[in-house]
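Hi everyone,

Forwarding the result from last night's run.
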Amino acid sequence: MDRAKTSLSEGSIGSDFLQLDVREAPPGGLADWLAGQLRAAIADGRLPVGGRLPASRVLAAELCVSRGVVTEAYQRLIDDGHAAGRGRAGTVVVAAPVLPPDPVTARPSSLVITRSPGLQVFDEVRAAPARIDLTPGVPDLTAFPRAAWLRAERAVLDELEPAHFGYGDPGGAPSMRLAVSRWLARNRGIRVDPGQIIVVAGVAQALTLLGEVLRQHGLRSVAAEDPGSLGARQHLQHCGLATPPVPVDEDGVRVASLQAEAVLLTPAHQFPTGVVLGGERRRELMNWAAAGGIVLEDDYDAEHRYDRAPVPAVRSMLPDVCYMGSVSKLLAPALRVGWLLAPPRFFADLVAAKRFADLGNPVLAQLVLARLMETGELERQLRVVRTRHRRRRDAMIRAVASDLPGAVVHGAAAGLHLTITFDEDVDDVAVAAAALGEGVKVQPLSWHRQQPGRPGLVLGYAARTATEIAEGIAVLGRLVTS
């Protein structure tokens, strides 16, 4: 039983740290009470991630309890994954627990997951509290190569000239453009002069710049794969472009159905179905482009493959493609670094649009990333995450087979997500809304359709553990059955 070390007089009990007062503890439960107080302080931000807890001896003395009470409370935080012992550095907060939704401020899941998603839908989904996030498009963020990044950043800063801290080329730092050209040659079969590359803030900005410039050149629409990315369509529509649907089947986009002047494709790993644009369709696309069609290629998830051979980029065979890529799925979306290749007729206008958007990406991050590319660290990172992502994909496939036996799995050979489809009697929006209400985030497939089609769910697996994946799929299985 927990006991105070001494009999204490009124007014002598307590610590300035978090205003802790042991008189609030239930009899015989000092360690439980202290762990709960610390956990609550971490959750509400009074103890931030990275903050250090007082030495156990010091806090025990202030509270007038045995040191064992404090060390036991600290150990419970460590066991929960909220703190870590760092030797002489003491016990440090490393993660905050997920708070339950505030019943006053949290939006009901039925208002977040709706049949007609608005422009802010992805922001609202990201902000919605959940125990298990299975939304697509996020890699394993815990695998970010912090040590390699810090080494590269120190090396870059040691070599950096004062002039590099000024305004840079809006098209990108020369060393970054060179590194990207070599990366694309090695990994995507694309030969491009560094001067033809524009460094952008991810594929999202590339789409916005292309949308603006294509409108300047008289285009009024860009065909979009159906099903295809809702987010990509929103970016183009924000630029005033229509996005008429073009069907996708097991061989990719149906080129023969193209009626627009331009088309946005994800040929290496189609989002959300995961199919690859087949050889015959690629030949049809080349003929369509030769007749004046404009191809926008989002090289989505191209590097994440598990059970199939590499798929060349369309840009490697068709030089006039507007090609987009980024490190969001390989390192982290927060870096906001990507690249855009465009034919000469659009290039100058795209650089101008980039200049007036933000004067160019931050140079330091470009130089660090360029060093990671040139030293081989980025390839090493890809090998690490590919192995981890494969294990999590396998865990999701097993869970779907167990808890959603009627679902059909699509796109398992590559990428960071699976798409599953159901019979027509399943309401995927209702399932996704109900799942969010139980703390599991997924996206309904119908969000990514413009034309009617089979209902389903788009499920990301890269950022979750096998245990979390199994738990999340079990929730979905119960909801679909009911």
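The first strand starts at residue 83 and ends at 85.

Cheers,
N.
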